[in-house]
Structure formats: structure tokens, C-alpha cells
Write a structure and sequence with these properties.
single chain, 213 residues, alpha+beta, Membrane-bound Lytic Murein Transglycosylase D, Chain A, Glucose Permease (Domain IIA), 8-stranded antiparallel beta sheet, 3-stranded antiparallel beta sheet
Length: 213
């Protein structure tokens, strides 16, 4: 092979290899859409892109690294019809890094278990925000392992739950606005690090919160 041709082929192969290891964010992209499009789990994306502290960190033209091994993120077994609230903007409930996604996960002690929530690890005392406006239906200590928790009813069969808080700042029956601080992050209940266990319910069934961002 001639030197010039060899350099061209090598350059093309290198460019192709680099393209397969990165993804350029396009208009309308969200972490959830990128995950589904590329068959990469949300946890893996955030692990190799630590700058993504929240889904709203994405910018058009931003280049993301892709994990060497990809795996499709788990989805809820129940199929939930898209409703009007899917199209609304949602507030990311806490500052920090998402360390556990929705679906099956492997635990050192408990083994593989089903995790119908996302976990966001952060600092003790950092604000926990209401993802949508609504009415607080529960703000109490949960003895089953979730510590201080808040449950908000947003109407239309939609509810969100925020667990493991260090302090609650709302009471049952209280109306809250989107983005309002409802609690402070903590490590109460069965938790090894300060984090938020964030869950979304539609008609009583848990769905993947990332499908709404």
C-alpha cells in the first residue's frame, strides 16, 4: 500500500473509531432519548460524563463520551399511555450525581433487586425541589426504610415521592409550587450515603422518571 493511501485509510479508521466512542448532542436531545437511541444505560452515560450533574446540563453541539460496553436501560414492565403532563417541563429534584437508575440493579449485600426509582447522591442539607406543582399528601417518617419522605399529588393520577431526607419543610395538605424546596437531602432510613430516592407514579404504578426529562 502506498504511504499516502495508507495515511488516508488510517485517518478514516481513526475518525470512525472516535465517532463510535462519542456522540454530539443535537437539538431536542435529552439524556433519556440519547440513552434509548444508542442503547446505552443512563448510569453508564453519567459515569463517563461526570459533568452531567443533571439532564439540563446538555447543550446542543456538546460532545459526550460513550462507554465501551453499552447496555439498554431497563424500562417499566407496565405500559403507560402518554398524557399531557409528559409534554410539560419538569424540575430536576436535587443537585448531585445520579448513581442508580430505574430498573434491576446489583447490590453487594442484597444481590440483584428491582429499583423503581432513580437515586441522586449529593450533600447532606442540600435542597430537595418539587418536580411539579401539587398538593403534599404525605410528609412523615417511613418505617419501612425510606426515612423522612414527602409524597406530592400533581393531579391526573400523577404523584412524586422524595425519600431519605434529613429534614422535611412541608406538611400534608400544603400546596407547593414547581421548584419549591420541600425537604433537605439526607441519609435517613436504609441509606449508606446522602441521596434522594425519587419516584414517579402514574395511577399507582411507578414509571421511569427519566422519561419525563
Amino acid at each position: 500500500m502506498k504511504p499516502t493511501l495508507f495515511l488516508i485509510v488510517t485517518s478514516l479508521l481513526l475518525t470512525q473509531a472516535l465517532a463510535q466512542q462519542t456522540y454530539t448532542v443535537k437539538q431536542g436531545d435529552t439524556l433519556s432519548r440519547i440513552s434509548q437511541k444508542l442503547g446505552v444505560s443512563l448510569e453508564a452515560l453519567q459515569t463517563v460524563n461526570p459533568q452531567l450533574s443533571s439532564p439540563h446540563s446538555l447543550k446542543m453541539g456538546q460532545v459526550l463520551k460513550l462507554p465501551t460496553r453499552t447496555s439498554r436501560s431497563n424500562t417499566a414492565k407496565a405500559t403507560v399511555k402518554k398524557a399531557s403532563f409528559d409534554q410539560r417541563s419538569w424540575t430536576w429534584p436535587a443537585q448531585g450525581r445520579m448513581v442508580s437508575g430505574f430498573g434491576y440493579r446489583k447490590m453487594v449485600v442484597a444481590g440483584t433487586n428491582w429499583h423503581p426509582a432513580i437515586d441522586i447522591m449529593g450533600k447532606t442539607g442540600s435542597p430537595i425541589l418539587a418536580a411539579r406543582p401539587g398538593t403534599v399528601t404525605e410528609a412523615r417518617w417511613d418505617a419501612t426504610g425510606y426515612g423522612y419522605m414527602v409524597l406530592i399529588d400533581h393531579g391526573d393520577g400523577l404523584k412524586t415521592r422524595y425519600s431519605h431526607n434529613s429534614k422535611l419543610l412541608v406538611t400534608p395538605g400544603q400546596q407547593v409550587q414547581q421548584g419549591q424546596t420541600i425537604a433537605l437531602m439526607g441519609q435517613t432510613g436504609f441509606a449508606t450515603v446522602p441521596h434522594l430516592d425519587f419516584r414517579v407514579y402514574v395511577s399507582g404504578k411507578e414509571i421511569n422518571p427519566m422519561t419525563l426529562y
